[in-house]
Amino acid sequence: MNDDLKNSISTLKKGGLLVYPTDTVWGIGCDATNYEAVQKIFELKKREDSKTMICLVNSIQMLNQYIEDIPETAYTILKYANTPTTIIYDRPLRVAENLIAQDNTLAIRLVQTGFCSELLKRFKKPIVSTSANSSGQPTPKVFQEIENEILKGVDYVVTLERDKKPSNPSSIIKLSTNGEVKIIR
User: Rounded distance, CA 137 to CA 12, Å?
Assistant: First the structure.
């Protein structure tokens, strides 16, 4: 794991892209605070920049650094969620502008286990997570389903967990500071 962590952190610090195992599916990631790196993901995925991506953090403390006002409901959802859950928050802070949706929201998932959690802990910043596929293509369920174009288009591909069993994308919940809760997926 150490070589993968070192190489991933080095890649992220240089504004590069990586393919890595998240707590759900294989993802393409970059430093969520780096505008140019986020732009590279949009280009690699051939994705409209009006379509937003998820951001990963590894603690409530990290979450608090990037969201202006976390609704109390979020703490309850995070405490009791037994599957990976992404929450869309209003008014994100200190992330790349091109990561923020037109309605001034950002989808963030708290990851506390596995390689991804350790990477976040050591990198000390949020990491973008978007499925490792071109826009419009199916989400790869296992590493072997990732398109060659995606693998060749990133700066580093993590070697761990390539035989990981298929997992589902996270649930997505939109929370507004006015108390509104909406289930997206």
Answer: 25
- Cα(129)–Cα(56) distance, rounded to whole angstroms? 7
Question: Residue 5 region, left (φ>0) first, then alpha (ψ -120 to 50), else beta?
Answer: alpha
Distance CA 8, CA 185 (A): 29
- Give per-residue pLDDT as tens, 107-166: 999 998 899 999 999 999 999 999 999 998 998 888 999 999 999 999 999 999 888 776
CA distance 2 to 38: 25
pTM above 0.85, yes or no: yes
Count how many Cα atoms sit within 13 Å of the Cα of residue 81 in the half-sphere of its side chain.
19
Q: Provide the 3-class DSSP secondary structure of residue 132.
A: coil
Q: Cβ of 151: how many Cβ atoms within 10 Å?
A: 12
